[in-house]
């Protein structure tokens, strides 16, 4: 999967004067707001889409109903279906993110 690596790469044009670049993303983003104020459907949706299009990897933890479906939809919308590795209660305890990562590292070292 190709990914952007130039820190000046534009990920989102927030306004006529405000560019959000890969460098800004690497510094970290905090989103504050009251319950139901639009963090997920506004900034969360815009940022996750930009990150997926830019080839980011990441770990998303989900607890709210519909959250897994939301991320599967995002992956589909931005051409990242094949990047999804889903760990859930159906996968069993040996399929945690850490055990999957350990297996991937072991396989790549062979
Ligand atoms: N600008 C807006 N105008 C009207 N409705 C909005 C707007 N932004 C968000 N909503 C609606 O408000 C509801 C709550 O939004 P959202 O789930 O994004 O909030 P949140 O801040 O993530 O909430 P939570 O704190 O529960 O995670 C959703 O139904 C969403 O569609
Ligand atoms: Mg939310």
Overall description:
With 110 residues, the protein is mostly helical. Helices cover 41% and strands 6% of the residues. It has one domain (10-109). It has helices at 22-27, 39-53, 67-77, 97-109; strands at 10-13, 19-21. A two-stranded antiparallel ribbon has the order 1-2. β1 and β2 form a beta hairpin. It binds adenosine-5'-triphosphate (ATP) and magnesium ion.
Strand arrangement within the widest β-sheet reads 1-2
Q: Strand pairing plus helix content: what structural class?
A: mainly alpha
Share in β-strands: 5-15%
Q: How many β strands by DSSP?
A: 2
Distance between the termini: 22 Å
Instruction: Give the total of domains.
Output: 1
- Shape field: globular
Mean pLDDT: 91
Give me the number of helical elements. 4
Helix content: 40-55%
- Contiguous low-pLDDT stretches (5 residues minimum) are none
Question: Keyphrases for this structure?
Answer:
4 helices; binds adenosine-5'-triphosphate; single chain; 110 residues; binds magnesium ion; mainly alpha; 2 strands
SSE blueprint and pairings:
Layout: E1 10-13, E2 19-21, H1 22-27, H2 39-53, H3 67-77, H4 97-109
Antiparallel strand pairs: 1-2
Bound molecules: adenosine-5'-triphosphate (ATP) and magnesium ion (MG).
Brief overview:
The chain is mainly alpha-helical. It has helices at about 20-25, 40-55, 65-75, 95-110, and strands at about 10-15, 20.
